[in-house]
């Protein structure tokens, strides 16, 4: 008789544990209840658009003297000349500063 009671006791204990676990879990939302607000993720950041060719050409023309004077030996490409001009921003002419600002502002 004790052999037949053991499965019955085990089933009772497991059923009690399952009922207890159901009490600990949140109830599913009812159809009349609005769903909980999920935290929204911010939209992905778009990389800035490159400056227009006209803006780059205007900046290059306005900064030609400054580039020759301050950035001699800097290899063009990859933003190296722009980085050089930014490094020497206190020595760059006003026309060059304005042209670079216009070119970079136009790309945002």
Q: TL;DR?
A:
With 108 residues, the chain is an all-alpha fold.
Name the structural class. mainly alpha
Mind describing the biggest β-sheet? Answer: none
Helix content: 55-70%
Whole-number mean pLDDT: 76
Measured on Cα atoms, how large is the radius of gyration? 35 Å
Element-by-element helix/strand order: HHHH
Oligomer: single chain
Number of helices: 4
Q: Tell me the number of strands.
A: 0
> Beta-sheet strand percentage?
under 5%
Shape: rod-shaped
Low-confidence stretches: none
- Give the N-terminus to C-terminus distance in angstroms: 83 Å
Care to describe what's here?
The protein is mainly alpha-helical. It has a domain at 53-106. It has four helices and no strands. Helix 2 (53-70) packs antiparallel against helix 4. The protein is rod-shaped, with a radius of gyration of 35 Å. The model has no long low-confidence stretch (mean pLDDT 76).
């Amino acid at each position: 008789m004790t052999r037949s009671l053991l499965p019955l006791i085990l089933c009772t204990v497991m059923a009690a544990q399952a009922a207890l676990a159901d009490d600990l879990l949140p109830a599913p939302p009812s159809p009349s209840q609005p769903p909980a607000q999920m935290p929204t993720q911010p939209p992905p950041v778009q990389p800035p658009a490159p400056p227009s060719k006209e803006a780059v050409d205007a900046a290059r023309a306005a900064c030609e003297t400054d580039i020759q004077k301050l950035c001699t030996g800097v290899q063009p490409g990859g933003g190296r000349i722009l980085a050089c001009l930014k490094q020497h921003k206190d020595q760059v002419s006003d026309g060059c500063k304005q042209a670079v600002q216009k070119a970079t502002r136009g790309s945002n």
